[in-house]
Amino acid sequence: MSMTETGREVYISGVAEAPLGEVRDHSELSMIALAAREALAEAGLRLSDVDGLFVNYMGEEGSVQVGEYLGIQPSYADSSDLGGAAFVAFLGHASAALQTGRCKVALVVYASRQRTRASRRLNHWNDKAVSPQFEQPFGLPAPLGQFGLLAARHQYEYGTTSEQLASVAVAARQWARLNPKAWSRDPLTVEDVLASRMICEPLHRLDCCLVTDGGGAIVLTTADRARDAARVPIHVAGTGESHRQWHIPQLPGLSSSPGAAAAETALHRAGVTPADIDVFEPYDASTISVLLALEDVGFCSRGEAGRFVEAGNLGPAGSLPSMTSGGGLSYCHPGALGLLLVVEAVRQLRGEAGPRQVPDARIGLVHGIGGLFSTAATAVLVRD
Question: Which Gene3D superfamilies match (predicted)?
Answer without folding.
Answer: 3.40.47.10
